[in-house]
Specification:
The structure is a single chain. The protein has 179 residues and is mainly alpha-helical. It has seven helices and seven strands; from the N terminus they run βαβαααβαβαβββα. A three-stranded antiparallel sheet has the order 6-5-7. Strand 5 (125-128) and strand 6 form a beta hairpin. The longest helix has 15 residues, at 163-177. The chain is globular, with a radius of gyration of 16 Å.
């Protein structure tokens, strides 16, 4: 699934993953996991993420390669937000060819959404500080304000959901991914 940040790729990917019983692989989730676990790849990704830019291709591809090496993807998977550059697309082709003979992508879906709606969605998004579940304070708020419905942990605003970073992320998408 391809599209601008906040277009709804993650929501759609989770639903498709559940429906078809295949893993949902989000580069954003991979980045946050590597950051939280303080891996070398996480440290390499952190500066770009904090500025709202794309994580370098080699770091992103290394995280994807590691994830595609796990046994749970043998029956299929859904990529959310990858590839984001031509270099990443070429790397994905190579990763799939090397992982299993004849393995390829079945479909690529572009999720389109106007910038004004994306900005509204990201400004009102909150995520669970523990389990990562996502809420929208306007369209899908938690039952109890500021508390995750799933695990009762506090909800937080992601660092990349700040207005200046949202603008940088959208500009980066238009310049590097949309083409």
């Amino acid at each position: 699934l391809l599209g601008a940040p906040g277009a709804g790729k993650g929501t759609i990917a989770q639903q498709l993953g559940s429906r078809y019983r295949v893993p949902w692989i989000s580069t954003g989730e991979l980045f946050r996991s590597h950051l939280a676990n303080q891996t070398e790849l996480g440290r390499l990704a952190s500066a770009s993420m904090a500025a709202g830019g794309l994580v370098p291709d080699d770091v992103t591809c290394a995280m994807i390669a590691d994830r595609l090496d796990r046994p749970d993807v043998r029956q299929g998977f859904i990529l959310d937000g990858f590839p984001r550059t031509c270099v990443q697309a070429d790397a994905l082709t190579g990763l799939l060819a090397a992982s299993s003979p004849g393995r390829c992508l079945d479909q690529a879906i572009v999720v389109k959404c106007p910038d004004c709606l994306i900005i509204d969605r990201l400004r009102s998004r909150r995520v669970c500080s523990s389990c990562g579940r996502s809420f929208n304070m306007v369209t899908r708020p938690p039952r109890e304000p500021g508390i995750c419905d799933a695990c009762s942990s506090p909800l937080i605003r992601r660092a990349d959901d700040q207005p200046d970073i949202i603008a940088a992320r959208l500009a980066t998408y238009r310049e590097q991914t949309a083409p």
